[in-house]
Amino acid sequence: MMLTWKNVIDYTVNGNPTPDKRVEKTEKEWQALLTPEQFRVTRLKGTEAPHSGALCTIYDEGQYNCICCNTPLFDSSIKFSSGTGWPSFTQPIKENAIKYIKDTTHGMIRVEVLCNTCDAHLGHIFPDGPEPSGLRYCINSASMQLNTDTNNE
Ligand SMILES: [Zn+2]
Asked: 153 lies in a domain?
């Protein structure tokens, strides 16, 4: 099934899909596993500077996994160049890979996207992406790692 903005709003109102598994750690444990920038973005809901992330301009084939728990989040086939300076995608790799939360910080009403397995902050989603889904997942490079060796999965 292809997710649309209506599905995203439904998730923020009625609850998110159930993930395949959960990974939970303390703030101290995450801090020990991550670089300071990865920790700031994923666990403290930070945003990296546009065009600064290592994955912005990479279009190699593979899967983008959560930097915290290594769960696959996005496939390279649905990555697109949005010109925003952040990696951008039109769909999640699986319907239950991503969690959607209404975000009213900074005087805006936005939808935050998180890893549904470990609650890592990934970025935000907007209804101005390319057809057919019309979705734009705007994701921090620091929240992901690209796994180009997906053959034996
Ligand atoms: Zn995760």
From this structure: no
